[in-house]
Amino acid sequence: MQRIRLRYTKRGRLRFTSHRDFQRAFERALRRAEVPMAYSAGFTPHPKVSYANAAPTGTGSEAEYLEIALTEPRDPEKLRVLLDESMPRGLDLVDAVEARTTGLADRLQASVWELRLDGVTLQEARGAAEAFLAADSVEVERRTKNGLRTFDARAAVVRLEALEGPADRPGDTACAILRLVVRHATPAVRPDDVLSGLRATADLAPPVPAAVTRLAQGLLDEETGTVTDPLVPDREVVTAAPPTAAGQTAATEAPPAGGVAQEGTA
Amino acid sequence: MPVESVFPRLEALLPHVQKPIQYVGGELNSTVKDWDACDVRWALMYPDAYEVGLPNQGVMILYEVLNEREGVLAERTYSVWPDLEALMREHAVPQFTVDSHRPVKAFDVFGLSFSTELGYTNMLAALDLAGIPLEAADRTDDDPVVLAGGHAAFNPEPIADFIDCAVIGDGEQAVLAITEIIRAWKSEGRPGGRDELLLRLAKTGGVYVPRFYDVEYLPDGRIARVVPNRSGVPWRVSKHTVMDLDEWPYPKQPLVPLAETVHERMSVEIFRGCTRGCRFCQAGMITRPVRERSITGIGDMVEKGLKNTGFEEVGLLSLSSADHSEIGDIAKGLADRYEEDKVGLSLPSTRVDAFNIDLANELTRNGRRSGLTFAPEGGSERIRKVINKMVSEEDLIRTVATAYGNGWRQVKLYFMCGLPTETDDDVLQIGDMAVNVIAKGREVSGRNDIRCTVSIGGFVPKPHTPFQWAPQLSAEETDARLAKLRDKIRGDKKYGRSIGFRYHDGKPGIVEGLLSRGDRRVGAVIRAVYDDGGRFDGWREHFSYDRWMACAGKTLPAQGVDVDWYTTRERTYEEVLPWDHLDSGLDKDWLWEDWQDALDETEVEDCRWTPCFDCGVCPQMDTEIQIGPTGKKLLPLTVVK
Asked: Where is the composition biased (Low complexity) (chain A) (predicted)?
């Protein structure tokens, strides 16, 4: 049995896809592409797919991960192209490796998030970020299935910086970008929890909902606060070459062109 | 003139609503065509939530048929839930299509498919959100033509004030004919405006335009007559019938949604129409004659559909699927073909007398044998003669015995309450039937854990059926009868615990009855309910009986009628019915004779296997029964790797 790990995106309007929706769509794409899937045993066999740490509904992502088990070996790159063609545009399969190691889920230690705040100036964003980072703890509330829950959103935040918004925006409206590195912990701290925290500590209240995108997930370097490609160990075994520059830098750079928030204008 | 997408404005609202994915489109096999390259543009709506509307076969078929044509474009729109509706009103975002998020008002035609009358308030909500005047009389040349179709359109009179026109029957060819008329009218520079276009449509005899007919009433409230008020407009409007389903293999590329919907499977319509002659069944009466898709045509559709969708279940749809002349070979052929691929087959709507265990075994080759569903509809032999559902209790017991003996553990039985001539005793016999089923099941399976679920709802008399003259049972009497049955089942010490009892109270049926057999005066009730906030009437959590009754109480008495007049009143032979000028092909005198036969407990055979009984459809519509067997078989698929 061969296991293949795939990185996929949730771009443009398809960021509103929930994780359950994605699962159904992906399993149908597997059938359309006639991928020789391994099935679970039992009364109602399911194709063997494991998903890791899915982004919340409504947030975009450049770095979601899953693993599939096949009964016959396939070339990972050819399989990726086939599946990518079979999936709707926006749910794009962008990377594939054969699994040579265990513990992909354990390597997803932290996420890099980008929050686009339309109507917020760079100064406002920078001030809020500084106030947030200066606090020892930032209590926020979130509604969960079990009612309202209060927890600290500060400790999990490794980095938080404010950047100038993209140059191509219409007119001279204010726009700031927050770049956020969050450690995966329990309870999970999500970008909207950090936004709640920014409101609590610095009264930051964006006039329109923030457009949130996960740029990367992977191993966290606690010293530098950088997040590195979690598929590198699988690649290393194959190539026996040093980690590629692409694998490392992709994590902290902007998403590929044509990515976030460009669809939806059709 | 370019039409802009409203998506950027909608997108800002989506983070605040439930299940935003239902509003973003992008489904697999959906189509986006160049607006400016098309000269006739349709917005198609199923007036319910996306999760119900998306799998609708009718909309899916017309969407594909229209989009396949050069210069024609069709996009889809569904009802938005109240959370988004409120935000759209606050931020002035209009009703949009999910394909390109264009405003519905920008299209030439706004076509709505009504499977049920309970979508009428949702139509008003969509019109209002679209910025289209609710009343057809207030519309201008800038508004789309509002067109109703679907089974409920066989009596469009309650919505006559809100629609510009209605089409009854099969839509495939009708939408193309309408498209050509609109195209010609537009290319001529829209002579005579909206009025001229509607007149051209009406003159075909296949499009009903309510404004070209005047309804005159008698002093007692009944209709005196319905008269065309323009020259060239026919007295009666005909239904459309597609012959040779193999020439119309739609949907070829079924839509695959990202959002979860009520039917997560690929559906293939294996035949259209039914001549079993169940007297309560509007679908069976208005879709005649029976037209089968061939076994090879079905095999083709399944093969292409599965390839295009990746679904893992195929539903073989029709009004009574086991009645296909080659159903055994179809089921076996498909089960053979897809045994390795883990594709499940399902056969909704199976009659007790057409069920056979070989068929059931083929259908469940891959899956588990959880439950079988049958619909005897009536509890006593007598009432089943009245409704012409010729299923004997012996048939049923024999069938369930086989099923329990072959590993099934659960049988669901569907019934109706409030059928014409029904007494308490007819309904109480449902309890006896369930007991006999359990007793037989325990005997043949040797187990005590088998179950039978009785599901029962109130009967609503429908237009174009022999029961169109019948009195509907009041909600109170329906509830009282159901309570007696419930007590009888619960009181059975030996078998009661093995029998599940599910029922719907009689109130929603009264509103459905008002809308089903209503006339133009009922439009004011629908409008009042909408104005008072009524939406999603098919959903228990949104439906309000009290609101409907309050609004009816405000609007109907001025016309000398009330809800009982429309529902529990029995009609006479002479009465002009509101839908008499809509021709379903059924001869009104034959329907009356069949109604009299019902009262005499006389049954009628199926004309597929016995001589024609002159219901009128084939000669009136110039159609014929199209059934097999073709003698062909489904060969194994050649696997190309």
From this structure: 243-260
